[in-house]
Amino acid sequence: MVDIRIPIGLMFSIIGVIITLLGLFTVSDSDMYQKSLGINVNLIMGVLILLFGFIMLFFAFRKKKQK
Amino acid sequence: MRLELHWIDYLIMVIYFLFVLGIGWFLRKYMKNANAFLEAGRSMPAWVAGLAFISTNLGALEVMGMTGSGMKYGMLTTHFYWIGAIPAMIFLALFMMPFYYGSKARSVPEFLKLRYDEKTRGLNAILFAVMTILASGISMYALAILMENVLGWDFNFSLWISALIVLAYTYLGGLSSAIYNEVLQFFIIILGLLPLVFLSLKDVGGWFGLKEKLAPIATANNFAPDTFTTTWKYSSEAGSNPLGVEWFGILFGLGFVLSFGYWCTNFLIVQRAFAAESKSAARKVPLIGALPKMFIPFLIIVPGIISLALFNGHSPDFRAGFPMAGDKPIYDYTIIMLLKHYLPAGVLGLGITALLASFMSGMAGNVSAFNTVWTYDIYQSYIRPQTGNEEADGKHYLKVGRIATIAGILLSIASAYIASKFGNIMDFLQTIFSMINAPLFAVIFLGMFWKRTTGHAAFTGLLLGFLMALLHHGLTIPAGATTVFKGGWLASIHVYPVEMAQNFWTAIIAFTVSTVVTVGLTFLTKQKKSEDELRGLVYSLTPREADDSHLPWYERPAGLAILVGVICIILTIMFW
Q: Of B420, B444, B472, which marks where a domain is finished?
């Protein structure tokens, strides 16, 4: 029917990019990250989510190629 | 306690909504008949159905409730997972799924019809339809009220907008759309709540720091210092742990009756496995679901336990903003207060989206189970039977399924409004659900493993089990109860120390009565089904499974079951 990994991969890649960018733009904003114990969670989670999105897409397209 | 969201938070939410709707839109062209719409054409790979299986269970009430229970009971809350879910999921996969899937039944009520008779199906179908709608209304209400109080969203707005989105994608793509979205929602729930676990643990100095902080709180409540971070250690007496139940109640009430009643007979859950592409895939579905299920406590219960430390001294800020009912925190708010406490804009949007996703996965589960039971077990059985023209029938029942989807959503919204008016009645209804599930498990279990069990016996067993549970609820009361909805509405002959103990015992009685009645009456009544009719439905009359020993262990249900069991035992021992 449709490989669910494609929409999942796309969505998390987009969200990952947004959150990573937010993390990069706020690197020097220590006020914002006071809540999160001084850790730039946006940067860390953004990269993690982006990676997850890519992995999903990678497996989806690898399967397509095999077919 | 208001929480201000940044526009980026809303952007993430909107992207999520667009994808959810997009999946429904994309799948709409495959919905050619009722079979595709209501059963996903029995075409789902095991891993997709398995993640959907667990995602349906990970609804808003589960996320909010389990985090709240973590704050209330500590690590003992994991009993709802390691003893209260995993054994039942293994049992479902190995022993029940072959008969469920092999029977070709399209729903649990239909299985009852095949195994027993029409009246047993009818009773179960009607109870299930009503229960599902009410359950979905309760969770809609819970979420909308949370959004209103914390985000300042209008109650009606969040209720209608989330209901309409669920309606749109289940109307368009049916069960397939619900399942695909559940997989997406599963990942967003995990990734959205993940930063919370790490930040809160780091804040309290890791697991050992948490233990240290909780010790004085436990001693102040007259418990042993490590009560909140252990599970079975203080279960010899009900009074020595915050759950208020002793090991027998936990093991038999929660670990057996309630958990097997929920996981093995609740069509909402089992339906995901019915949609799998083959019998072997269907058997793997609950096991694939069990793998993440075992670790969900670390995602939602552990931050809940940390809230207890934050609330009692570690963070005055956290306590100051916490919504209270008298001198007690309102535990349902724990998860959102944690999100607010730790997450900055960006990941916060993702966290709120995770809550919305959990809500939608639960609701889509309810709606897709409701429309199937309505279409097949009520409409097709009592209102308009099949005509024999398969193509025309398929189209007709597709239309009925779609209308049932709309009706299901509207009725859920109505019951959410009822919940907002009469909160107490809704608590009572939730108690009633456990009275219905426990006898159902007894009857289905006996039906699958004892070929003699008769329809009359099963029907009476279901009914009497439920009525006796109701009677037990009417005659007992938990300590400190203020309303008749908590029990004792007939008389009060026994007082339970906590409500949880009363619930466990209600379920135990429902199960025991219905087992005894069903077995007893089976000896007094005649089996009307021939052995031929029971083939594939009863253990002793079903040919053994095809040999799968040539497959690698991780592709065999038994291999996966052992893996799940071993990990579960290790976790239990680690946190004993």
A: B420
